[in-house]
Amino acid sequence: MNKAQTTAKTGAALLAVAAGVAGTLYFTGVLDRSSQSVDASALCEDLMPQAQLEKLFGEQALTSDDVLVTDRLDQSPQECSIWPRRSASQAHFDELSVVVSRYSGSRQLLLDLQRNISDSWHDVVSPLGNGWRGVLRAAPSETRAAVVMLCGDGGQSDGSVVVNLTARHRGIDEPETTSEQRTQLAQLATATAVNAAERAGCEAPRGKPVREVAAPFPAPYDTSGATAPGKATGTCAGVTVATRETEADPLAPIEDCILLDEAGKPAFRLAAYYGPYVQDGYAATHKRGDSGKFRGPAGGSDGLYWASASCPAQGGTAFFTAETLRIRQDSYASPDPVLQQSELRRFAERSARDHGCEAPEFGK
User: Fold this and answer.
1) What is the value of pTM for the model shown?
2) Is 123 left (phi over 0), alpha (psi -120 to 50) or beta?
3) Contact 216, 126 (CB under 8 A)
4) Across the chain, which distance is largest between two alpha carbons, in Å?
5) DSSP strand pairing (161-168 vs 243-244)
6) Phi/psi of residue 211, each to 5°?
7) Rounded distance, CA 105 to CA 82, Å?
8) Is 4 or 20 the better-scoring residue by pLDDT?
9) What is the DSSP string of 124-191?
10) What is the DSSP string of 27-49?
11) With bands split at pLDDT 50, 70 and 90, how would you rate the model's confidence at 254?
């Protein structure tokens, strides 16, 4: 048995042990730069299908020299990064990182997705769809995909395996990611999630092969991307004012809806969190005043209102927010509090119903 095979087998054994306890699943191992016979996926614990991986990078072959395994000594998820040495003119992405976590109730999951600044109208996600519990987040220089594998029969969120892939474009220009490129990343993310769940002994439902994904949110200043009052059909369905939205999906673990003021500028965000993202939602949502703590299943003041619902079908509880958006570093929009609460009710009732939850509980 050569060194690379020993490394892979040791890493797999450690991963299997980690899967049996609450905490983190680790990518482990020592990168063997001298072994050119080992392909890139083997050095990421065989979690990513080689063909899909190379397709993402413009059909170029990958070897061990293209892979970096980040070995941390703390309890953070370890990260496997792929950084091809050769540039491919037909490839949009030129770097990829993957993090596999066992749900731990921390803010790390939203941070991996770069959706952790909840009062920013830039940070929004769209559903992966196709029967998967997943979302995509598109930014100028990178695109992220997150997939939740909910273990067991209608399992609890603390039994989830969460896979997060980040594909980056390191060029000077920042071209928009196309639908085809986002679909390729979604295909790789779901295949990786299936492999990670199997490695963890997680019997989670699987979706269908990903053929296409929902369009991302319209660009912030794209006035043609706004949906007229009362005309929303996706994540903002039922809302009475002008919005920016994406498609709704009954398995999306996060839903976003941006509401606009009379001038067409972002005023507040409606958000829904399910499964392992609920505790992250509590941690990431910026609550001003009242010591910054959430008390009780529903309530609100100072530009933030929240509600919750029992949702065993999605791993336990659902958490909904209506949060005032930050305009500049030290200033916020000023939406009508009554409007925030009424739109939160419409949004949460629709989202909870679509996700198979019980009726939400709202504050007085």
Assistant:
1) 0.84
2) beta
3) yes
4) 68
5) unpaired
6) -100, -35
7) 27
8) 4
9) --EE--TT-EEEEEE-SSEEEEEEEE--STT--GGG-EEEEEEEE--SSS-PPPPHHHHHHHHHHHHH
10) ------TT-TTSBTGGGGTT-S-
11) very high
